[in-house]
Amino acid sequence: MGTYIVKRIMTIIPIFLLATLLTFGMIHLSPVDPAEAYLSAAHIQPTDEILEQKRQEFGLDQPLFVQYMNSVVKIIQLDFGTSYVSNKSVWEEVSSRLPATIQLTVGSLLIAILVSVPIGFLAGIKKNGGIDHFSRFLSFLGASIPSFWLGYLLIFFFSVKLDLFPVEGTGTFAHLVLPSVTLALPLIALYTRLLRASVIENLQEPYVLFARTRGIHEKIILGKHVLRIAISPMITGLGMNLGNLMTGAIIVEAVFSWPGFGRYFIEAIFNRDVPVIQCYILLSAGLFLISNLIVDIIQMYIDPRISRKGRQYQ
């Protein structure tokens, strides 16, 4: 198990380096001149002399390979440069906003798991029953409604009409409810479908028939064996969505004025704040890789055959 984990970690390094290379290439292929973007954000009239001075200051006059290596070294040190707008360290700015995004991500994941696991499991067991029809409707609803429209709809009913939750901002549990539900509904739709299909498939497997033949109680078969194996695709989907939630809650943060990382990224795009944009892309890649690594470890713990298969194909 330890060898498998180490090898999975080692595969992350070249993938992340490739992400840094792609990010570096996109920034340099972009028509936006970082020196000109800095002067524009600082409201300084660009002249040839000032532009040349800023290019030297940013190291843009050096060969591309040298620029890339310097960029990688700084990224390893969590040095993403200075924001063109605030003149503060990008990492400090991001670090101050990440807790709000993490809070929103954890809240939405908890809601998605607590709702989709029982509904998806019962829908798979009682196929074509009432709970199954409800799960299909819920999945259709979650997959059809855009996040921004759902957010405004929840604000209209629960904040404006019923005055139950705040309209925007953060600070209390009440502020967290509506944005978390908005983010969770598409996940509920996805996880419910995955778990339902997996439960139906596993109920037809020979091990279920053998367990019933041996006289094992149905609750033990369903809870200890079927659910443990059937939940595997859902955990995989969780790993795919965790990185996206951490960095992709842009629309929801904008709708609810949530002071998170996604909203900061939107502001950086409008201000052409290149260091912040670079940090967002690389942090997204890193979070995606780490979340998938964590999910692989969890999957291996649930089903040890994964690590044995990995050794078999080496």
TrEMBL record:
PANTHER family: DIPEPTIDE TRANSPORT SYSTEM PERMEASE PROTEIN DPPB-RELATED. It is found in: Cell membrane. The complex is composed of two ATP-binding proteins (NikD and NikE), two transmembrane proteins (NikB and NikC) and a solute-binding protein (NikA). Keywords: Cell membrane, Ion transport, Membrane, Nickel, Nickel transport, Transmembrane, Transmembrane helix, Transport. Belongs to the binding-protein-dependent transport system permease family. OppBC subfamily. It holds the Pfam family BPD_transp_1_N. The lineage of its organism: Bacteria, Bacillati, Bacillota, Bacilli, Bacillales. This is Nickel import system permease protein NikB. Residues 98-299 form the ABC transmembrane type-1 domain. It is a multi-pass membrane protein. The chain crosses the membrane at residues 12-30, 102-125, 137-160, 172-191, 242-261, 281-302. One of its GO terms (molecular function) is nickel cation transmembrane transporter activity. Its main location: membrane. InterPro entries: BPD_transp_1_N, MetI-like, MetI-like_sf, Nickel_NikB, Opp2B. One of its GO terms (cellular component) is plasma membrane. The keyword ATP-binding does not apply.
